[in-house]
Specification:
Blueprint (H helix, E strand, L loop, with lengths): L8 H17 L6 H8 L7 H10 L5 H12 L15 H12 L22
C-alpha cells in the first residue's frame, strides 16, 4: 500500500499515540522507518500489529489500546470523502473530527462595562 500524502487528523492522532508509547518504552530498533510511517499516519496498521506494538511498548492501558484499535479499523470514510480534492485537507479533517466528536464544550466570558454596572457588581 503506498503511503498517504495527506493523512487525516485521526490517523495522525493514532500515530502520535503510538509514538508516545514507543518513546515511553525507549524503543529504537529494526523497522524504525516503517514504524515512523505508521506514526506519521502514512501507513495503516492492522489490529494484530497494533496490539503487538502496544504490548512491546509495555502499554497496559487496555482502554487506550482498544480505542486505538477502533480508530485503526475505521477504513470507510464519511460524507466528506466525496469532497477530497475539492476542499482543503484541513477542512476535511475538521469534518471528520466533528463527525467522531462525542461532546462539545463552550465557554463564554461576559464583560459588563463599568458604566452599566450596578452597586452589586462593583
Amino acid at each position: 500500500m503506498p503511503p498517504r500524502s495527506n493523512p487525516t487528523a485521526r490517523q495522525a492522532r493514532l500515530g502520535a499515540d503510538l509514538r508516545k508509547m514507543r518513546e515511553a518504552a525507549a524503543l529504537l530498533g529494526s523497522g524504525q522507518t516503517q514504524i515512523s510511517h505508521i506514526e506519521a499516519g502514512r501507513f495503516g496498521v492492522s489490529e494484530e500489529r497494533l496490539r503487538r506494538l502496544a504490548a512491546f511498548y509495555a502499554c497496559d492501558d487496555r482502554q487506550l489500546v482498544d480505542a486505538l484499535v477502533a480508530m485503526g479499523n475505521e477504513r470507510r470514510g464519511g460524507w466528506w470523502e466525496e469532497y477530497r480534492g475539492i476542499l482543503a485537507p484541513k477542512a476535511l479533517d475538521l469534518a471528520e473530527l466533528e463527525h467522531h466528536a462525542i461532546g462539545l464544550r463552550t465557554m463564554e466570558i461576559a464583560h459588563i462595562p463599568r458604566l452599566l454596572q450596578t452597586e452589586e457588581h462593583v
